[in-house]
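Wait, mind explaining this?

_____
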Amino acid sequence: MPSKTIYHRMRSLNTRMAANYRRGIGPRRVVLLLTTTGRKSGLPRVTPLQFEQVGGDFYIASARGQNADWFKNILANPNVQMQVQNREFDAIAEPVTDPLRIADFIELRLRRHPLMIRLIMHLFDGLPLRYTRSDLVEFCQGKALVVLHPSASP
């Protein structure tokens, strides 16, 4: 039997994490569940993602950039559903690929979670611990961000 790819392992982990989230288990203050429509299958696809709330909107970033399946699904159909803790609502997803806007988002995350985000970005993404704004903008080339605009007040 061939070994599982990282994609298969993450898909299994996402399924378990989503089930736990719905039972009230897990990092519900920083993670939401995003349900997109599969661009090929037409089936609902649930992905747990870290978020930042800004006003009434929710910002989520793609670790895989524009190659993430959930991001590609949004490009095909921006109508999504989301769950934040016990609240569920529909939203319109606005894809963002502008490196300046993505850098602004990362700076917001760094202000709100300085240690966690800086370490993640340094260890996994290679961003220097001491970086400049131009380093950050260059780092954001090819990355992706989505702004979720809820249809009703969350």
In short: The mean pLDDT is 87. Strands lie at 31-37, 44-50, 52-54, 57-62, 79-84, 87-96, 144-150.
